[in-house]
Amino acid sequence: MVSIIAARHVVRLSRRMRLFSTTVARDAEVKRLGVVGAGQMGLGIALVAAQKANVPVTLVDSSQKSLDKGLAFAEKLLAKDVSKQRITQEQADTVRDLLKPATSLDSLGEIDFVIEAVPEIPELKFDIFSKLAQICPKHAILATNTSSISITRIAAATTQDPRDTSNSSRVVSTHFMNPVPIQKGVEIISGLQTSKETLDAAVAFCERMGKIASVSADSPGFLANRILMPYINEAIICLDTGVGSRDSIDAIMKNGTNVPMGPLQLADFIGLDTCLAIMKVLHTETGDSKYRPSVLLRNMVDAGWLGKKSGKGFYDY
Ligand code: NAD
SUPFAM superfamilies this protein is in (predicted)? Predict the structure, then answer.
């Protein structure tokens, strides 16, 4: 009886929510993609979308310098693919022509799907989503590549009136793994307001990009980082407390679990600042001491030893 009442309530609620919601783009209707942020992740996402899903991509970055750097890097990757005969010169030219650089969000007025990949700063993402909700067509899916910020909070930034879900229901996370052209996995995360149509469209579009989607709840760290970061953090604690040397730790995990690199080398590749930021989110959002960031990790970030990107981490580069 209770479940019948609950089911009726859900039907009534979803009918009421539909009063405000609009029909989002289904995968087949995604004819033009927008990507915001042409850094490490945004560029990879734009490149793979152009290459695999064959869609024109408007690549927006507030910095012309980042755009130039990103496009030069794309050129390099395409040239490498041609030289290794993975693609023809003609295919490389087609992909290049599909990438349309821009410096203003206003150029996203005709896209069907947008993926945001700006730095992991909550206020920056909230501001961008409130603007995307106004600029992008009403059917467009608004996706974020955040590593750790709540999708529900990002979705809430698209509306002044929480009862109006017409914008927040089309917000979702497509959390690509780094480097995007190589890693097959992508996490798809719904916020509380995300509609099923939006979730399905995000899964379908990522599959069109050749990715394998895993659906996760909107919970601190989602799935990938909830599992990966405590593993890396524990490896750093083992090093800090003398349980094993750097090389012993990386060797046993590499040779014992058949992964391409050990946890300390992987931390260097991800960036120790990023690892620390995610551990802090896990720790503060759950209040669980098992997620406390290691002292050595904090110290290394304070020293500016961020891993590969700064030339020094657990290894020298
Ligand atoms: P990045 O610093 O390499 O790139 C961010 C880009 O955003 C820069 O080019 C910057 O100029 C641009 N930008 C800054 N403010 C902007 C604005 N207002 N409008 C438009 N562009 C703006 O960062 P990244 O490593 O590509 O990370 C981007 C997002 O992806 C973050 O949310 C991060 O947590 C997430 N992520 C990163 C990784 C990783 O391993 N690096 C993996 C998965 C997810």
Answer: 6-phosphogluconate dehydrogenase C-terminal domain-like, NAD(P)-binding Rossmann-fold domains
- DSSP character at residue 49: I
243 vs 263: CA distance, rounded Å = 15
Q: Are 198 and 170 contacting, i.e. CB atoms less than 8 angstroms apart?
A: yes
Nearest CA to ligand 1 atom 12: 37
Asked if residue 244 belongs to a known ligand binding site, the reply is: no
Reported confidence tier of residue 262, pLDDT bands at 50, 70, 90: very high
pTM over 0.90? The answer is: no
Tell me 84's DSSP state: T
Q: What is the Cβ-side half-sphere exposure of residue 201, based on CA atoms within 13 angstroms? A: 27
Side-chain half-sphere CA neighbours of 111 within 13 A: 27
Q: Using the 8-state DSSP alphabet, how is residue 50 labeled?
A: I
Dump pLDDT digits (tens) for 56-91.
999 999 999 999 999 999 999 999 999 999 999 999
Q: Give the distance (Å) from ligand 1 centre to CA of residue 272.
A: 15
Compute the distance between CA of residue 122 and CA of residue 286 in angstroms, rounded to an integer: 18
Ligand 1 centre to CA of 3 (Å) is 44
187 CB neighbour count, 10 Å cutoff:
21
CB half-sphere exposure, 289, CA atoms < 13 A: 0
| Nearest atom within ligand 1 for CA of residue 144 | 32
Residue whose CA is closest, atom 44 of ligand 1?
147
Q: Fill in the DSSP letter of residue 72.
A: H
Among 267, 263, 265, smallest CA distance to 235 is for 263
